[in-house]
Amino acid sequence: QVQLVESGGGSVQAGRSLRLACAKSGYSNCMAWFRQSPGKEREGVASISSSARTSYADSVKGLFTISQDSARNMVYLQMNSLKPEDTAMYYCAASARYCYNGPDSLSRQAYNYWGQGTQVTVSS
Hints:
With 124 residues, the protein is an all-beta fold.
């Protein structure tokens, strides 16, 4: 069983940065960050495997960075140059199963453990 607890969300102005953190307990091969805005589907933002292979949604490439500290069981999402359209609930996800590559690693079906989410609000 894997438990995930997100932190680091908040309200910021456009152009600023935030770093989200996900504290994990239990074993997992793959981790990811997803986000969901009201009325929209939950979408994959970034993923990272146990071997540190990363993937990003096109909308955040070059702006967001996913990283992990395996010794501390933490996964982070550094978000730079935030835009109002980045406003969403951000969720940490984990899987102990096969780690997919590329866009498949950003699919909801690739993960079976989810945190409760942390809200990010970006104002213009």
